[in-house]
Amino acid sequence: MCLITPADLLSTFRITPDGATHPRMVPPTKIERFDTRYNRDRRASKPVYHLEIAMHANSFWVGALAWASLFAVATGNASADDQSADQTQLQHSDLSQYRAADGKLKPIQSVADWMFRRQQIIAGAELAMGPLPQTEALPAFDTRITEDVWIGKVRRMTMTMAVDDSDRLPFDLYLPSSVAQFVNVNALTNVISSPKLPAVVALHPTGAAGKRIVAGQGGRPGRQYGIELAQRGYVVIAPDYPSFGEYADYDFKRDNYASGTMKAIANHRRCVDYLAELPIVDSERIGAIGHSLGGHNAIFLGVFDQRVKVMVSSCGWCPFHDYYGGQIEGWASERYMPRLRDEFQLAPDKVPFDFYELVAAMAPRTFVSVSPTHDANFDIRGVRKAIPVAAQIYSLFDAPEELILLTPDCEHDFTKNMRMESYSIIDRVLQHTPIEPEPATN
Q1: How high is the pLDDT of residue 27?
Q2: Angle, to 10 degrees, between the axis of helix 293-304 and the axis of helix 111-129?
Q3: For 224-250, what is each residue's pLDDT tens digit?
Q4: Which Gene3D superfamilies does the entry link to (predicted)?
């Protein structure tokens, strides 16, 4: 049984940074649709998309109730009678319940109920990943440009920025043709676009080339989604993942993070911070996309940063029990989450979170899972088990169509058809009319 300490709780409970929602339209057709709806007469009459926990006078009791509920989850703070009456643990694959302040399991009947469970999911994830760093004292970006090149009509600026007091993140910034020629290399933050442009965080798969893989380098086709989205008219930021690209010499043992996963989440949130500060970017229209390593990082970013309105994960996930038959050693390296080995004995039943929960935690924002039927890494059978579970929460938000599963007949790949379909969904969610894209090759 995994217990959440008060310290873990204090590090995880936070007001969601953004309450905006996007218009819903009918998505493209070639999808597997899941619409498992809650009984409507048991639902809130008007969904509340974000649970406000404001601790000022007129909402003190709301805040106190929320804190009491989460504190009970963290400490097992229930009476002996309550504990003897209800010893049932929350199951990662069952999103119909949450643990209330009295320690008892209660049915999720409203969005407010779900928000308590969501905070419990975040707390569980942080037990495995380590706490999300606080952002109040982050340094200035202090961006430094090391290269400025043109790729066709797109401009790519290679840069570094400060992500904390001791580390600089290498990344590429792609500027679409609509603004590329107007940017002064020394005054990027002074350029204003009217109207402002949408932006995407493009997260690369495993490979020594790091961030350049999303530009088509690295020797494998189908990974060039960074440059393709820039050609389509998006501002794109593509960071290196620690241990790849210009980050190849990153030393996980000497940083202040419990996992490479949490370090990456902090870096990728910093990328969103940077995009939101650019005058050319509409901070309400930011998405994330990735393949494989980048695929699950798009999920992690979407869970921990609600400013991201659409997440595309290609070949990026399945429940832990379905990952190589439950052999989760691959998730426990220093690049990922060493605590899965050191504290949870590589046992999926002991891991304090799972992807059923993470996918649901992105609701009601749009999530596109590109899950090939022959992916040897992330078993489609596990994805097909998890999507209907998460669909219950999307339906709770009246947003079942925003959970999209694409199942191409291929192996561990992000094919041209799937990329184009994913881009169309991003266009729809971020309300973008694409520039005539330069032709994709494969």
Answers
A1: 35
A2: 130
A3: 999 999 999 999 999 999 999 999 999
A4: alpha/beta hydrolase
* pLDDT 10s digits, 2-31: 333 323 333 333 323 333 333 333 333 334
Looking at the chain, the whole-number percentage of residues with pLDDT higher than 70 is 77
* pTM given for the model: 0.82
Domains and CATH numbers, the chain: 144-430 (3.40.50.1820)
Q: Report the range of poorest mean pLDDT among 54-58, 301-305, 386-390, 410-414.
A: 54-58
Tell me the pLDDT tens digit for each residue of 161-173.
999 989 999 999 9
Q: Please give, one letter per residue, the 3-state secondary structure of the chain.
A: CCCCCHHHHHHHCCCCCCCCCCCCCCCCCCCECCCCCCCHHHCCCCCCCCCCCCCCHHHHHHHHHHHHHHHHHHHCCCCHHHHHHCCCCCCCCCCCEEECCCCCEEECCCHHHHHHHHHHHHHHHHHHHCCCCCCCCCCCCCCEEEEEEEECCEEEEEEEEEEECCEEEEEEEEECHHHHCCCCCCCHHHCCCCCCEEEEEEECCCCCCHHHHHHCCCCCCCCCHHHHHHHCCCEEEEECCCCCHHHCCCCHHHCCCCCHHHHHHHHHHHHHHHHHHCCCEEEEEEEEEEECHHHHHHHHHHHHCCCEEEEEEECCCCCHHHCHHHCCHHHCCCCCCCHHHHCCCCCCCCCCCCHHHHHHHCCCCEEEEECCCCCCCCCHHHHHHHHHHHHHHHHHCCCHHHEEEECCCCCCCCCHHHHHHHHHHHHHHCCCCCCCCCCCCC
Order across the sheet with 366-370: list the strands: 144-151, 154-164, 167-175, 235-239, 197-203, 281-291, 308-314, 366-370, 403-406
Within 10 Å of residue 397's Cβ, how many Cβ atoms?
Answer: 18
The predicted model gives 371-397 an average pLDDT of 98
pLDDT band at 191 (very low <50, low <70, confident <90, very high): low
- For residue 297, which amino acid is it? N
